[in-house]
Amino acid sequence: MKSIYNFFLAGLVFAALSCSNDPVGPTLVNDNIAAPIITAPAANTAITLTEATLNGDFPKFTWSGADYGFPAGVQYTLEADLAASDFADPVALGNTRTNEFGVLNSKINSILLIKNVPDKVLTDVAFRLVAKISDEVPLVYSDPLVLKIAPVKVKVDYPKLQVPGSYQGWNPGDPKTVIFSTKNDGKFEGYAYFGDPNTEFKYTNGPSWDENYGDTGADGTLDRNGDNLRAVEPGMYKLNVNINTLAHTYVPANWGIIGSGTPTGWDSDTDMVYDPVSGTLKVTLALSEGGEIKFRANDAWDLNFGDDNTNGSLEYGGANIPVPAGGGTFEIELILNTGDYTYKLTKK
Q1: R_g of the chain, CA atoms, integer Å
Q2: Which residues partner with 38 through β-bridges?
Q3: 3 state SS of 328
Q4: Res 17: pLDDT
Q5: What's the whole-model pTM score?
Q6: CA distance 149 to 143
Q7: Which stretches in the chain have pLDDT values below 50?
Q8: What residue spans of the chain are helical by DSSP H?
Q9: What are the residues whose beta carbons fall under 8 Å from the beta carbon of 203, sequence distance 6 or more?
Q10: What is the largest CA-CA distance in the chain?
Q11: DSSP 202-232
Q12: 160-252: CATH, from 2.40.50.140, 2.60.40.3620, 3.20.19.10, 2.60.40.10
């Protein structure tokens, strides 16, 4: 009888174990996971990038690995963002399964310029690691490492569309009459000055007529080998082309200076004049100390430029531009014939 009882008890134990839903293998308790720790570069290291160093290596990132309490294959992603943004818009620099990561200075520089960090200004930039072992396990983040980095603004060779026309001898090879795709997304923008009424022009994809576009029917959609486009009134025009959809616009954009730093204040503009030698717009004007200026087109605010970072780079709808200390008479130059719109104030 005793042997029968023992056999019955053993069966119950086996059944209980067989029906258990407990997981097999290591069990993770999130509070016990040790996050990775970045050990190099040293926090608050100041790094000034230059054109000469762009092709070199940024200081290598190294770290102590995340500890999950058992051996695990960990993938690390290194992220960067402006420290002030608190990783609201991080950029992934790359992935690795080792405990170190290298990146070129040029990549760091590009990220900072895209985030509108001023040229040659040391700015707090945060880096962090994201550790992952599987989709079922929550991501683990390192504490951020903050470095002080100054980017350098360099001339970028953006994709271009040529704009040959009667205003420049119908020459698709002229490098001065082009518009740019600054985001390399097939959307082109630029400015052209048409000095005569009823100026005709077209677009070419390259410095030849092999692939050219006009607008047969003037319906706002480009056609391969289509009719010439026509700008009725002379002056500066803003050109936009989406080569993906072939939608396009060209609208007058005659620029002036306005602001508390100008003789007419915020009440009216002082018109700028096109310089055919430099391909820019200029005006010489007395500016008052403590005042501000902006650029706007067509005596209206629909199209205006300011300077958010006071670094000479223009942004649509940007901040007012302070008059340099001391005020005085300045040649003001608006430069719209490159992919990056800029301006200069030169004291006379």
Answers
A1: 30
A2: 63
A3: strand
A4: 38
A5: 0.64
A6: 19
A7: 1-29
A8: 2-19, 105-114
A9: 161, 162, 163, 212, 213, 214, 222, 241, 248
A10: 116
A11: -EESSSSSSSEEE-TTSSSB-EET-PPEEE-
A12: 2.60.40.3620
